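Hi everyone, sorry if this is the wrong subforum. Our group has a chain we'd like a structural model of before ordering constructs, and none of us has done structure prediction before. Sequence below.
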Amino acid sequence: MPRTTTVIIGGGQAGLAASHCLGARGIDHVILERGRVAERWRSQRWDSLRLLTPNWQSRLPGFAYDGPDPDGYMTMPEVIAYFERYAAASGAPVETETTVHAVHARGDGYDVRTNRGTWTAPTVVLATGHSDVPRVPGFARALPDGIVQMTPSSYRRPSDLPEGGVLVVGASASGVQLADEIHASGRPVTLAVGRHTRLPRRYRGRDILWWFDRMGLLDQGPDDVRNFDASRKQPSFQLVGRPDHGSIGLLELATRGVRMVGRVRGADARGVVLDDDLMATTAAADAKLALLRPRIDRFIARADAGQIALAPADAAAVREARRVKPEPLALSWPSFRHPTPGRLDFAADRIRAVVWATGFRRDYFWLRVPVLDRDGDLTHTGGLTPSPGLVAVGLAFQRRRKSAFIDGVGDDARAVVAHLAGLLAGRRGSAA
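Answer:
Right subforum, don't worry. Here is the predicted structure as C-alpha cells:
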C-alpha cells in the first residue's frame, strides 16, 4: 500500500497549484488524476471555446503567461499546453489514469482507494473543482425520446445536433456562446433566459476584468459582501473570449435572430413550460450593470487624481481610459417588452434538440468522510473541512470571489498548504 504525506485528488489548475505549494515546502505528495493533466479542459469543453479571462490573468504559483498575446484569450489546446508546461516546470508528481473510488478516514489519516490500488496519507487535498456534473433539472426526463439533449460538457460542435430548431436553456456565459454558435450554423435557436450577470467585454478601452482586478473586486472575501451565500451562487459572467474582444449579450443575439423566452420551469412529452419573466430578468441584469459602470468611473477619477496608489503602468492605463468616453448603456429589457409564450411545443416550433446550459454541481459520492451537508455539498471554511487534514482548493468563492478562476487558486492553495504544514509540524512535535 503506497504511502505519502499528502494526496491531491485532481490534476487541473487547483491540484497543480497545490502541488507547487507543497513542493516549495518540501512536503512529499502525489496527484491522482482520473485521466490526463487538465482532463476536464480536454474532454468536457466544446471545440471553439476560449478562456473567458484574458491571458495575463492566467497566473499560478511560480508560473504566469509569457506568450505574445497577453490581452487575448487562450483556445482549449493552448490552455491544455499551458497546464502541461506548468506541471513539467513544477515537477508535479502526477499519477494519470488513476480514478479515485473512495476516501475513508483511518486513524490520524486517510485511505484513498483507486483503480490502481490504495494510497494512505495523513492529509488529503480535494482539488476536483467546484463543479463536475451538469445541473440538469429532473423534469428533463419528461422530454420525448426524439429530442436530442446535450449539456456544455457533451456538446462539441453544431454538427453534433440534428437539423432543425434548438432550445438553449440558460443565458450565462455558456448559454449565450452556444446560442450564438448554433444560430450561426443555420439552426433556428430559442434561448430560455434565466438569472444572469450581464457584463461588457471591454469598458473605456480596457477588458472588464482588468478593471475588476485593479479595483480589487475579485479579491473580495466573505466579509466584503452583503450576502455571502448569494455571491457564492452568482451566475457566471455573461462574457465570451473572442479574438476581436467583442461582447455577446442578449441584445446582440436578438439582433442576429435568436428568439428570447422566459425561464423554463417544467416539461412534458410535448414541450416545455415557461415563465413570463423575461423582461424582469433582463431588467435586473441591466440594473446591476448600470450600478457597476459609475463605480468604475469613480475609480478612474480617484486614481487619476492620485487618491489610489497604482503601479506606473496601471496609472498610465487609467489616464488613457479617462480619455475614452463611455458608450451609452443599451438596456436589454425594452427589446423584450412583447409578451412571451407560456410554453414551447416542440412539434409546432420545430425544435429537435435541447442544450441545458443550466450550470454545474459537485458530486462527492466517493468521499466517505462525514463532511458533507444535506445537499451533498462540502462543509468547509475557506477550504478547511471539519475533518483534520482534509482540505479543498478551487471551490467557488472559497476565500475570494476569484477562487474558482485560474488566477484565484494560487492564493487559496498557499493558504491551505500553510495550514497543512502547521498541522503536520504539530503532529511531529507531539510524536517527539
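For your construct planning: The two ends are 25 Å apart (CA to CA). The first strand starts at residue 6 and ends at 9.
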